[in-house]
Each structure stands twice: as C-alpha cells, then as structure tokens.
Amino acid sequence: MNQGKCFKMTPLEYYSKHASDQYEQKLKRTKSFLQKINQDYSPLVQATSLGVEDMIITDLIHQLNLSIQISMLDTLKLHPETLALKNQAEIYYDIKIKSYYPNKKTTQNYIKKNGKNAIYQSTELRKECCHIRKLIPLTDLLRNYKGWITGLRKEQSNFRANLQAIEPEDKEKDQPEVKLNPLLDWTNGDVWYYVKTHHVPYNTLHDHFFVSIGCKPCTRAITLGEDFRAGRWWWEQNETKECGLHVSKPISFNSYQS
Ligand code: SF4
Fold first, then answer.
1. With a 6 A CB cut-off, is 78 part of the ligand 1 pocket?
2. Which of 42, 155, 197, 205 is most deeply packed, by most CB within 10 A?
3. 127 Cα: distance to centroid of ligand 1 (angstroms)
4. Which of the listed residues 72, 74, 77 should we mutate to test ligand 1's pocket, taking the one with most ligand atoms within 8 A of CB?
5. CATH number of the domain that 36 lies in?
6. What is the mean pLDDT of each run of 10 residues along the chain (258 residues)?
7. pLDDT at 3
8. What pLDDT score was predicted for residue 209?
C-alpha cells in the first residue's frame, strides 16, 4: 500500500470537497432514474462489486425503498477488506447480499493446467481466469432478471465514456435485456461528496488509493496522475482494462468448463 502515500489526504477528505456544480440536479435525476427503471425493468438486480459507486447505488436503493436484488460475484480472490464491507453493508442496510462463486472443479483444472500464477503469464490466461471466476458466475447472477444495474461512470475510462444510461444487451435466454448505469455522469467529487454527506460505508482500501478494486492478485493502489484503471492488471499494456463484464461481446472460452 505504498503508492498512495504521496497524498496527504484520503480520497474522502480530498474529493468530497469537489462536488460538481450540477451535483444536486444529478442526484435528483439519479433518484428519478432508479424509480423509473424499477417500474419499467422489474425484476432488477444490482451486480455490486462493493466499490464506492456501487455502495452509493445500494444506499439509494435502500433510501428509496426499491425492491431490487443486490448480488455480488465472490471470485474467492477478493481482498479481506471487501468481504468485511459485505458484512458491514448487510448489517447497516439490513439486507442480504447474495454471493455467486466460481465452479470449484473448473478453477482447480485451470490451476492444475496453468499453474498458480498463470494470470501474469499472458493476457489470454488472465482473461480466462476472469471468465471462469467472473463471467460464468455472472450468467447465473443475472438469470431471470430483466435489467442489471452497474456503478459505471464515464470518467473512469475511454471505453466507459461512450456508454449510455440504458445499454441494450445482446439478449440471450434468461438474461437481462438492458444494462442500467445510473451514475454515468457523476464525477469523482460527486461520488465522495455523496459518501461523506450520507455516511455511506465504503471499502477501507479506497483510503489507501486503491481506486478501482477487484481481486487481490490483480489490484494495486495508484499514484498521482495515474489513470483510474491503472491499478487493475497493471502488468498488461492494453488500453481496455476490462475483465469482460462490461464489454458487449465477452470472449468465449470453452475449455476447463465442467
Ligand atoms: S481479476 Fe484476476 S484473480 Fe480475479 S478473476 Fe480476473 S484474473 Fe482472476
């Protein structure tokens, strides 16, 4: 956790002072958006990573008393801090966050064939791990829902800058018609201002400048001036630091499935 030490303040202390001028309108719009999609796309699921944006959405769902399922992917590679936040959020909001896990035999076969550190050997092997631990369980998580809610923001990457609030999905049987992105226009300042003023529980790793938090072996803190996604799969050079959850046509891997 050394990378963030050049900052004197935590993200909460620093960014919460920099909400955008349009923050109040955005918050109002976001609440209306959530209420509207709850009518139009029910049943809905929030696929939470327990990142700070997702925590805001959970907070709003709770505040607006919306009947939306909150679920997460537990890759079995998450940080202890992330799992602690899950417990904290369940108590704080009096909810049950449903976890989806990878298939044990499939993960064992992957490790047996490629070794424990295969993810660092090639992008293809890393994506295969994401496929096994995230994409396959995601299909189960999303099954029978009409829409799924994410915490994506345009600011986060060039890829995300082109997203719309309602994104049609490649419709497969039993899978959602749309992906819904209520916080697309929120700035980092808006996010942390909301967290501070609404006392939203958040992952303590954010205090150490882990900005985008994924699995433990694939996440590091970032330094001043680094891109939002720089802490994810930092050993890779490609521009789209995505695991496949948020690209329209995920790469398909057929091996190791049992
Ligand atoms: S983020 Fe890393 S550990 Fe997690 S599923 Fe992807 S490659 Fe595997």
1. no
2. 205
3. 8
4. 77
5. 3.40.50.620
6. 58 87 97 97 97 97 98 98 98 98 97 95 94 96 97 86 90 90 96 96 93 90 76 74 58 31
7. 46
8. 86
Give me 178's structure tokens: 């749309």
List the domain range (segments joined by +) for residue 139. Answer: 3-104+132-218
CB 142 within 8 A of CB 45: yes
Residue 23's pLDDT is: 97
Q: Which residues pair with 46 in a beta bridge?
A: 70, 149
Residue 198 lies in a domain: yes
pLDDT of residue 247: 60
State residue 164's pLDDT score: 92
Predicted TM-score (pTM) of this structure? 0.88
Q: How far apart are CA 72 and CA 78, in angstroms?
A: 11
Per-residue pLDDT at 251? 30
Rounded CA-CA distance 49/215 in Å is 10
Instruction: Kindly state whether residue 39 falls inside one of the protein's structural domains.
Output: yes
Domains in the chain, number: 1
Question: For residues 33 and 219, what is the distance between their CA atoms, to the nearest angstrom?
Answer: 31
CA 125, CA 117: separation in Å to the nearest integer? 10
The DSSP secondary structure of 7-68, one letter per residue, reads -SS-HHHHHTT---TTHHHHHHHHHHHHHHHHHHS-SEEEEE---HHHHHHHHHHHHTT---
Residue 243 annotated among the catalytic residues of the structure: yes
Report yes or no on 123 lying in a domain: no
257 Cβ contact list (under 8 Å, min separation 6) = 103, 106, 132, 136
